Amino acid sequence: MGNDILSVGIDIGTSTTQVIFSRIxxxxxxxxxxxxxxxxxxxxxxxxxxxxxxxxxxxxxxDGDKVRDIVAGEFQKAGFTPQDTQTGAVIITGESAxxxxxxxxxxxxxxxxxxxxxxxxxPDLESVIAGKGxxxxxxxxxxxxxxxxxxxxxxxxxxxxxxxxxxxxxxxxDVGGRLLKLEKDYTVTYVSPTAQMISDKHGLSLAVGQKTDxxxxxxxxxxxxxxxxxxxxxxxxxxxxNSVVTNGSTELVINxxxxxxxxxxxxxxxxxxxxxxxxxxxxxxxxxxxxxKKSRLYGDFKLINAKETIRATVVGAGTYTTSISGSTITYSxxxxxxxxxxxxxLTLDEQTKVFNGDKEFLxxxxxxxxxxxDSTKLILGLPGSKNPTYTEIGILADTIGLVMDExxxxxxxxxxVTECDIAKALGQAIRRRFLNKRSIISIDSISVDDGDFVxxxxxxxxxxxxxxxxxxxxxx
Length: 476
Known about the structure:
Distance between the termini: 23 Å
Shape: globular
Number of strands: 21
Radius of gyration: 23 Å
């Protein structure tokens, strides 16, 4: 018999803020005599809030008090109190994803989300999250194909490419529906750098306080869509492309032919649906949707009908999967417990590079991950190896130990989670090589993935095992 818990997701983006409640059913999937293993067996979105314009103090700083008012109001409308919710996540994305915003939101929402995951998602991670939420990842996995998700919001288009459900490329462009804002009489009230650059190229004379027209807006949007197509290799790259690639995003490199395309984000509704008044949202979102709809992105590939569009980033949020580590572990007890540590999970191919001593690869991977979120800690997740040799463990320990000691901030621990039973030998090898220079926790028999957050509790059973809570975002 399953146990129900209530999950709340709060998504604060550049343009919009929303709240979603989900009912999650969890069950112990282990046999009667085995260590408990809790799994999600069902989930259902039971309440979706209105979609609000994200309240801002200035161009980038969130108005924390108004966000709190929105969340409080939606709890009341949904008929729930903070005491009813056992889990959840606050996700801050786009231009709103700044460290000062994360701290502010956590403070203002502490009584609603004190124990929840609070994460700022950089452009790469936001791309992956949206691709999962839209259904593009599951389509790619179920149809064994390469599928692209384009999450088109107010300020950016986040791009992720899946091959059989695995991420093979990601990137982001400064292309979105609110890069030009207008009054109903076509008077321009805001021009972004991207819009200004295209305006200058085509002589469109887009300027604050001046009126524009359908023709100029269409040229602007067609050009923006063309730049996204260049990123995906549909057209040759122009000199202008580098100017619209979002700071902090990975270079988008695709080595396999694309079969299917999915659209999510606020502008996606203007692609899948018709009948929106041209300036309904006070911006160019409807025009941009029309430009995508006439593009090769829409016409040349299999079109995936998104499960979610504007709500793709967080459909349900923050559920708990509680596990117990294996007993072959190494840990420094004085640093436990730890909460909400983000996971960097290596694929088998990436792990092979680390086993072979590729310090440069791991160094760049860890630096990239740190640039994508605001935590000073990270857990390195490894698939592990069933029968590694002593030499292989030594090379792995040298590689991980040296890179982590170089990249992590002073006094931060080295945290490793593996699926196979190698954690004790690996942890001890790192400890021997670094003479307790840093605290270390190396545990096994736990499965984690990118985007997860992990709580590590105090040791149990005379120090043989550590309780682990893996908090994962639910999509779809």
